[in-house]
């Protein structure tokens, strides 16, 4: 099985990504199409393709100098367990290496074993980190607080 990874945002199947994230993921359920599109436009995107059809997605939010946040990693249910997720992570790592960032972060409920294969480790100094969440009753900057999807950083996935 040959998985093709492509970083061209113009090739992404946005409708499919919207469905995966908004209807099937555990972290972005209910995210609007507008927000999914805005996320794509402001990220480095990775599409995974089997026989030309998109079967996976991941994106990096980064300043390309110091920091990146890896999120919205998703493989279509019918294509799981065949190396697509690992191919996505390999491409992400390949993109990250030359940038030489100080820190790349992500959050996951249960896929630690996947990310661990690509060098990610649990936070060594978690007591130094803090977060501002829109679902904590503290509205994120610029947010009305009415939309649970306006967090400063997405929390999982
Ligand atoms: C997690 C996910 C991206 C993995 O993609 P995939 O194409 O099925 O994964 P691969 O076939 O490339 O292999 C995944 C590897 O990570 C391991 N792994 C660890 N935790 C895992 C998890 N929660 N889900 C899937 N694989 C996991 C697998 O055992 C496998 O390792 P191995 O080949 O050494 O046995 C996919 O199952 C998915 O989209 N799940 C639903 C959404 C999700 O949870 N996304 C991640 C959010 S952080």
UniProtKB/TrEMBL annotation:
Residues 131-157 are annotated as: Disordered. Residues 1-141 form the N-acetyltransferase domain. Residues 137-149 have a biased composition (Low complexity). Pfam families: Acetyltransf_1. GO terms for molecular function: acyltransferase activity, transferring groups other than amino-acyl groups. PANTHER family: FAMILY N-ACETYLTRANSFERASE, PUTATIVE (AFU_ORTHOLOGUE AFUA_6G03350)-RELATED. This is N-acetyltransferase.
């Amino acid at each position: 099985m040959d998985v093709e990874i492509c970083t061209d945002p113009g090739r992404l199947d946005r409708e499919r990504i919207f469905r995966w994230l908004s209807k099937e993921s555990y972290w972005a359920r209910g995210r609007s199409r507008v927000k999914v599109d805005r996320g794509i436009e402001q990220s480095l995107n990775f599409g995974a393709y089997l026989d030309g059809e998109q079967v996976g997605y991941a994106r990096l939010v980064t300043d390309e100098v110091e920091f990146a946040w890896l999120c919205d990693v998703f493989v279509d249910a019918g294509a799981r367990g065949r190396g697509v997720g690992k191919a996505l992570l390999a491409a992400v790592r390949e993109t990250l290496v030359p940038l030489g960032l100080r820190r790349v972060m992500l959050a996951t409920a249960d896929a630690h074993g996947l990310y661990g294969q690509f060098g990610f480790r649990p936070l060594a100094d978690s007591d130094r980190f803090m977060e501002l969440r829109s679902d904590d009753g503290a509205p994120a900057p610029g947010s009305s607080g009415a939309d649970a999807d306006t967090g400063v950083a997405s929390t999982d996935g």
